[in-house]
Structures are given as structure tokens and as C-alpha cells.
């Protein structure tokens, strides 16, 4: 796809002091498959070791049932919230409780989640140029935050795996707050916590709906990069962003900031 880069006048590294990054599809290229027989057979065995006996299909069905149950609980507490997320740790725990296994440690839940993620992940790599961009921002004394629709049980391990955690001044993951992008509430959490100047804050992400439209709603800037796993875009002109990189070449973000 043709690269499209557009910018407002005087947009460069000096314009932004605060950078909010999406993670998956922006910094990390990841492909997962949560429908594989190997995944559910392995998780079934791990539950069985603790006395929670399932068939593969029952375990998979109840997993999705408890996700929906958690979503409904959050909706009742926050009826005006449009975009919610659940903590899968609660779901994994409920799968034990459903089989009358009530004394499961948090460490076992974390280990189970790690196994679930590692087996369901078919590929995970960094986009070329990620370290260079983050080092460049640090060298220029910029504040860097992660704002990701993700699960802490998965994401914190993957940040450490690639050594990304050291770059962020703070990390905001949707499962921890039960709200996700593009909800304005999620964007406002780091903005309020650090009293960020919205005129000097930019969101960098690969989803024109959750990242760019969400950023626009709270009046912060946007840098959009289109990747293979991005939501399909029919008309790039409709994307609200200071910069649009339709080619998916991550290094072009740094080039844009250096203009």
C-alpha cells in the first residue's frame, strides 16, 4: 500500500513532550490463536492437576461464558461506559471455582495465564526501528507512556521479554482499569494523573478507531501507522492524525518527528 504522510505546519520533535503508545500492532507484531486444540487440551490438563475436571469444549465454553459474565458486572457498575475490558485473571479463577476448587494461589493463576498466552501465541516480534525511536525520545527528554488495550497477565511479561518496560514512565493497561480505547475515560487516566498538556501530547497507534478517534476526542495529537493486523481502512483521508504512515514502515515515525 502506498505510504501517505501528511503533517500540520511546524509538527516535529519539539512540538510534543508526551508520547502515548499503543503496543500490539504498533510496537509489537503479534499473531495469536485461541481456538487451537493444543491450547485447550493443555489448559484442561493444568486445571485437572488441581482437581478441576473439564472436557476441552466445556472449558472453552465456560471461559467465554465467564468473560461475558465479567463484562456484564462491569456494565452494571458503569452503565455509561461504552468500551470495557475484563481482567482474565478473574476468569481463570472462576473456572476453578465453578468446579468447587476455591483455594488457588495468585501465583498459580499467573502461571496458568503465562501458559495460556505462550501456547496461543504463534508469532511475536518487534517492528524494525522500535528501539531507535524510543531511544531517540529518551535522548530528547520526552515522557513516554503505554496506553494499551491488553491484559496485564500477558503484557507485562512481553514488555520485559523485549526490554521495553524500561522505556515507559508509566504503563496503563485496559484490564487493570476495566475500560479500553477509544473510551475517553481511558485516555484521561494518564492525562489527569500527570497533568499532561494535551497540546503537547500525541498518541501513536495502528488502529484508526481506538487510537486515533480516541485521541481526537480528548484533543490530543495522533500519529497513525497502518499494519497488516490493523483495522481495514477504506479511505485514509478520513483518519484523524497529524501523520499517517500507510506503508507500515515503523522507521518513518522517527523521520516524521525529525522534520
UniProtKB/TrEMBL annotation:
Keywords: Hydrolase, Magnesium, Metal-binding. Transmembrane segments: none annotated. The keyword Cytoplasm does not apply. InterPro entries: HAD-like_hydrolase (IPR051400), HAD-like_sf (IPR036412), HAD-SF_hydro_IA (IPR006439), HAD_2 (IPR041492), HAD_sf (IPR023214). GO terms for biological process: small molecule metabolic process. One of its GO terms (molecular function) is metal ion binding. Its cofactor is Mg(2+). NCBIfam families: HAD-SF-IA-v1. This is Putative hydrolase of the HAD superfamily. It comes from Lachnobacterium bovis.
Amino acid at each position: 500500500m502506498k505510504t501517505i504522510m501528511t503533517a500540520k505546519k511546524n509538527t516535529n520533535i519539539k512540538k510534543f513532550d508526551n508520547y502515548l503508545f499503543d503496543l500490539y500492532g504498533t510496537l509489537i507484531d503479534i499473531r495469536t490463536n485461541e481456538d487451537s486444540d493444543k491450547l485447550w487440551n493443555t489448559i484442561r490438563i493444568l486445571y485437572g492437576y488441581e482437581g478441576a475436571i473439564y472436557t476441552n469444549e466445556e472449558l472453552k465454553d465456560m471461559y467465554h461464558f465467564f468473560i461475558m459474565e465479567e463484562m456484564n458486572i462491569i456494565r452494571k457498575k458503569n452503565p455509561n461506559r461504552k468500551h470495557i475490558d475484563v481482567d482474565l485473571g478473574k476468569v481463570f479463577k472462576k473456572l476453578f471455582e465453578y468446579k468447587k476448587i476455591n483455594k488457588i494461589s495468585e501465583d498459580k493463576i499467573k502461571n496458568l495465564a503465562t501458559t495460556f498466552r505462550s501456547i496461543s501465541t504463534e508469532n511475536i516480534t518487534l517492528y524494525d526501528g522500535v528501539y531507535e525511536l524510543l531511544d531517540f525520545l529518551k535522548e530528547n527528554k520526552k515522557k513516554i507512556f503505554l496506553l494499551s488495550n491488553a491484559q496485564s497477565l500477558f503484557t507485562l511479561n512481553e514488555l520485559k521479554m523485549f526490554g521495553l518496560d524500561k522505556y515507559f514512565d508509566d504503563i496503563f493497561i485496559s484490564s487493570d482499569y476495566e475500560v479500553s480505547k477509544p473510551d475517553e475515560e481511558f485516555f484521561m487516566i494518564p492525562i489527569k494523573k500527570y497533568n499532561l498538556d494535551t497540546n503537547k501530547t500525541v498518541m501513536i497507534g495502528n488502529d484508526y478507531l481506538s487510537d486515533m478517534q480516541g485521541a481526537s476526542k480528548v484533543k490530543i495529537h495522533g500519529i497513525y501507522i497502518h499494519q497488516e493486523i490493523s483495522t481495514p481502512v477504506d479511505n485514509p483521508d478520513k483518519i484523524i492524525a497529524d501523520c499517517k504512515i500507510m506503508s507500515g514502515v515503523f522507521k518513518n515515525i522517527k523521520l516524521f518527528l525529525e522534520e
